[in-house]
Amino acid sequence: MRATTPLRRLAVFVTLSAALLGFACSKQEPPPVADTQPPADSASTGDSATVPLAVDDAWLADESRVDGWAAYGGTHFERRFSPLTDIDVENVGGLRADWYLDLPRDVGLVSTPLVVDGVMYFTGTMNVVRAVDAVSGKLLWEFDPEVGKALAGKRQFGFVHNRGISFYGDKIFAATFDGRLIAIDASSGEQVWSVRTFPEDAALYITGAPKAFKGKVLIGNGGTEGGPNRGFVTAYDAETGEEAWKFWIVPGNPADGFENEAMAMAAETWTGEWWKHGGGGNAWHGFTYDPEFNAVYIGTGNGSPWNRNIRSPGGGDNLFLCSVVALDADTGEYRWHYQTVPGETWDYNSNMDIVLADLKIGDRDVKALMHAPKNGFFYVIDRNTGELVSAEPFADVNWATHVDPESGRPVEVEGARYEDGVFKIVPGPWGAHSWHAMSYNPQTGLVYIPALHMKLGFNDQGIDRETFQSTPFRGGIGARLTWPEDQPRDYPASLLAWDPVTQSKAWEIPQDTFWNAGTLTTAGNLVFQGRADGQFIAYDARTGQQLWSFDAGLGISAPAITYKLNGTQYIALLVGFGGGFSALGGADAASLGWSYRAQTRRLITFSLKGEAAMPPQPPPRVPQPIEADFEVDAELAEAGNQLFNRDSIEGICWACHGMGAIAGGAAPDLRASSVVLDPKAFDRIVRGGALTQAGMPAFADLTDAELEGLRHYVRREAEAALAQ
Ligand code: CA
Prior knowledge:
The protein is an alpha+beta fold. 12% of the residues lie in helices and 28% in strands. It folds into two domains: 8-607, Methanol Dehydrogenase, Chain A; 634-722, Cytochrome Bc1 Complex, Chain D, domain 2, CATH 1.10.760.10. The strands form eleven sheets. A five-stranded mixed β-sheet has the order 1-34-35-36-37, with no helix packed on it. It has a four-stranded antiparallel β-sheet with strand order 2-40-39-38, with no helix packed on it. The two termini are 23 Å apart. The site of calcium ion has 6 residues, from loops.
């Protein structure tokens, strides 16, 4: 079993992922403003020879439609289910690559492609959006929002990846890492409008897909751990980019007045001077529009900082952290909320997908919302009222005994809040489930969850609760994490089929690799899932029996989609090991062998008639340090170590180049880089920003000695590895 060793360092990874922040180093500013709204280019919008597209809510809510995949979760219901049966349990063994598109400039690929009117749209590394013919794979256009340029000269790290785009009317909506929401003409690939959704110097970022509905586009942001941030979502007019409404997730300083009654109500559940800590709650994922109730459901984030004893020292539920919040789709007004973790203190956010279905539970017809957040419970909620229907653990849970059906609240275990010292909690802060999509198949009645199994120790010993203060871009979680040897299972992840009606497991496939991709399910009784080890697998949705597999030769982090054009059902998948694990996972991620750009990132589409011959990928290769004539100065190297691995703005190298200078694949392994041997070249890149277009920030204010320390540290690690 490789479970224990590879995951050991993830404990550190989690500590430091506290700082999944952004970039620059200045203070927060007042609310964002629209920047550019250039007049629409007539050539791109008016004079097109093609019939204008009109993707509307009826289209986006049509579960029977098979000619495309028009929304992030397939439709407004977010089920990732297709009624297609051309490919089924009987013939899936004959699935072959039909066409592919190499993406040599891309690195991490985690997004869900869309298919509308025969064209596939998808977002890649550095938020580049591409359109390709969905039958031939021919590239039609490419839109580069120049994220590197937008970030140039400013410090940033975090995940320069993106989970998807949205389609409405004749436009695509993409949100960039640096905080812009951009409308793109779907036929020409030209920008129609662009707005800033937060100030340039805010310690926030976007990796999520915007949500389009009823002529509006909604977006939130991440950054709960990046400083004293206060989460919010904003809806914009899809035609013009004008702000339609905004909803703050946690209350601000009462002295400034509350924005609405919901904030006044929420403030009753906070204590102390929480606003000095921002409060958090950032909605970086998990938006669902419900056409039946004209509501938007927002999955909200954890607290900032994690430790409630710091941000709300007198206790309290801290609304609307870790909740599903229902808002009026037209006005953004609060309707109801269901909080999965009152007063959370373990990074148990509720940002995971929110899936809609009508369920027959006993003799009751339930308009249900299904949600499997980090905390390990699977929730069925009445989406009309926000009332809990049922909640049961879908993975190992030791922080609460159960969710009380009357109050809807978890019944916590004594000591879980690490009030008496270390508490070894499961799920750990990675969650029992993260953003990797779950799917729901109404035919089998099952939900397919990429589940995670990890325990971590929490404590806050040695942290001064009175004086602790996170700062923008430096972050801080206000807790310490330790790695317990007694992990819950001898495998770190699984594919879980869950019955939401009986709240019980139908089947489960243990997996040796951590952080596998989201799922797709079809009426052909199939479930598709890609794994971090590069295997793309089809299972019988009823039994979990493996029916087909394809070795992509590179880790898979994105969910598949399906559609039917010209009589052929296609399955499409982006292949490019990515996401937090590839950036921060260090030796554990590196052990998979998907080193930076060694393997070609690809969009692959499969069919039963496919006969594409793809060039083989280079075999998995763990990065090897290069030999060099370099005399390491121990003192300089140790100073460099502090800088490289420190959880602060000066010490963010590890966040892409890996813990211990071992890169997981999202960035080059510096121990294998000749640039480190050349002080001038190193300076040009690290301080001068020569590679900002590739996502490498500029650290202009590092001193000569600090720069030198980094080189010596990297070589120290290189030589240590070479000596082994
Ligand atoms: Ca978090």
